[in-house]
Amino acid sequence: MKDALVLQSRVPAHPDSRCWFLAWNPTGTLLASCGGDRKIRIWGTEGDSWICKSVLSEGHQRTVRKVAWSPCGNYLASASFDATTCIWKKNQDDFECVTTLEGHENEVKSVAWAPSGNLLATCSRDKSVWVWEVDEEDEYECVSVLNSHTQDVKHVVWHPSQELLASASYDD
């Protein structure tokens, strides 16, 4: 390999628990991490150092499994083993949980925004995929519950330019 990857920095994202997932914001200036400590940390750089800019600790009661930035970068969705998804709104350097999406019967494993930012998908150990619609007033409504899987649904992902959703499961 001609140009080898070089470790730039090591950040103790969640020192007392596992870090489950990382997500860059759309501009690449912030990195969100989530973990078994029920917290979300927002990281940024100051000079050559990574610092924790914000700790979001009030949204979930159990492990936070996945985080996803909205395409505009003003919202962060977090999926938790407590069967909820929190929507965090960025206000300058701070974040506020503006709504908590409920309905899954078990652990929410993944969350993903559609490229338009108007749809959000969640999936769960309860074998379902939920699609949520977001309106201009930041209200979220479940518009579809998909029950095509026979096992845990582990991941959801939208096509980068279409409203086409794929889901991954332990199905045969």
UniProtKB/TrEMBL annotation:
Keyword vocabulary terms for this entry: Repeat, WD repeat
InterPro entries from the UniProt entry: WD40/YVTN_repeat-like_dom_sf (IPR015943), WD40_repeat_CS (IPR019775), WD40_repeat_dom_sf (IPR036322), WD40_rpt (IPR001680)
Record bears the keyword Transferase: no
SMART domains for this protein: WD40
Alphabetical list of Pfam families matching this protein: WD40
WD repeat residue intervals: 22-43, 57-89, 101-142, 146-172
Entry annotated with the keyword Repeat: yes
Domain of life: Eukaryota
Name assigned to this protein: WD repeat domain 39, isoform CRA_a
